[in-house]
Amino acid sequence: MASELAVKQYLALWLQVGKTISSLQGEVLALPSSIRQGKHYSLEFEQCWRVLLRHPHRYYLTGTDLTFEQLLSPAWELNPCPRCVMPVPIGHGPPAEHNLCPCADLCSWPNNELPQPRLPVDEAPLMQALRRRLETVG
Ligand SMILES: [Zn+2]
Questions:
Q1: Which of 1, 4, 9, 117 could crosslink 74 through cysteines, CB 3.0-4.6 Å?
Q2: CB-based burial label for 86 (10 Å; 0-12, 13-18, 19+)
Q3: pTM for the full model?
């Protein structure tokens, strides 16, 4: 099951590489202009996350078809994508077409020449754990 923390990181990382948030009602959610502020998430990002948590069934990462409510449900886990090492939702059981990384429609990503997306310093060990896990799998 993807924890709230893991889903928050998923959002923070994907926003940093140019993903946006869509809503089922077509409303536009203002994206934070920054994600991090030193050791912490920026206030704007925290605010954006709180809006999402209030109505997680309404919002999803643009280009994906899983709402935040689904990501927070026990049916999904976040694992590193084999192509770009970003967290990607993996469903328990079929349908397999859902196991698509949000990077699939980002032609600018992965890009090793760009600064890599980062989490606040306090969260960095979790990302390192993700990378280590990927290395042992690959
Ligand atoms: Zn990917």
A1: 1
A2: buried
A3: 0.77
